[in-house]
Amino acid sequence: MRETQTRRGVVAGGLASLILPVLAAPALAATKQDRATYVVPPEHQPAIVRLRDSFEPGQLLVDPNSFSLYWTLERKKAMRFIVGVGKGDLYIPGSFHIGAKKEWPSWTPTKEMIARDPGHYARWADGMPGGPTNPLGARALYLFDDVRGDTFLRIHGTPDPWTIGSAVSNGCVRLVNDHITQLYDMVPLGTPVTLYSKRSG
Fold first, then answer.
1. Of 37, 38, 49, 125, which is most buried, counting CB atoms within 10 Å of its CB?
2. Cα 103 from Cα 185, distance rounded (Å)
3. Active site residue 172
4. Which of 44, 97, 120, 156 is labelled catalytic?
5. Is the pLDDT of residue 7 over 50?
6. Active-site residue among 44, 97, 172, 179?
7. Longest CA span, the chain
8. Could you tell me if 154 and 143 are in contact, meaning their C-beta atoms sit under 8 angstroms apart?
9. Mean pLDDT of all residues in the chain?
10. What is the pLDDT of residue 28?
């Protein structure tokens, strides 16, 4: 995959020394709420932030420690989206690229997900059609690497927007549906993606 000098050797170290967003760290997500009445809080809305270090424009950088996804822009700026990330050791850091994009994608749980929770996932072993209740939400960006091709990791929407700002997913990065729709339209195929490591402890 494509790799830039600014990303080499920083996946393991995280973003703490590289990105200083203007905004404060977001509050953790609220408990489960009614989809029809949930309102995304102001601190979870997309915002232009200033970066301390230079990155090539047109990259996606995910910092799981602040639940932030950055779409890099010119002049040390980025658009920041608040995201949900993988729980526990299901979050997998690394370097990827966008290998596919889909609107209202269908979803099929992995074999590992079914093995972990067959009562919840086995009924969807043959897949769930796309739609408002589909776990991938309104849009999905598919993460590929040069070794495996499709890694089965996604940056996607969610029908449960109150989970944004927390570590609850099975490994993917999730955004509010309106936000993934906005991001989807900006991000072309081949875009480099870095998922930085969680801080230990």
1. 49
2. 10
3. yes
4. 156
5. no
6. 172
7. 49
8. yes
9. 85
10. 53
